[in-house]
Design the sequence.
């Protein structure tokens, strides 16, 4: 997935934003949400965002 891909349209959170949150210490989807706001608006992106976070955390 491209780093510029927008995962959360409500807050404009990109794949790179999620990667950076994890690089800076986030260890769970909830922590990534706190840092980026992903999935805290309308919620439509939660399943995609959570899958991406879990995939990145496994690496």
Sequence:
């Amino acid at each position: 997935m491209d780093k510029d891909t927008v995962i959360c349209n409500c807050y404009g959170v990109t794949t790179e934003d999620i990667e950076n949150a994890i690089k800076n210490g986030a260890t769970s989807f909830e922590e990534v949400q706190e840092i980026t706001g992903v999935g805290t608006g309308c919620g439509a992106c939660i399943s995609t965002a959570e899958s991406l976070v879990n995939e990145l955390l496994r690496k």
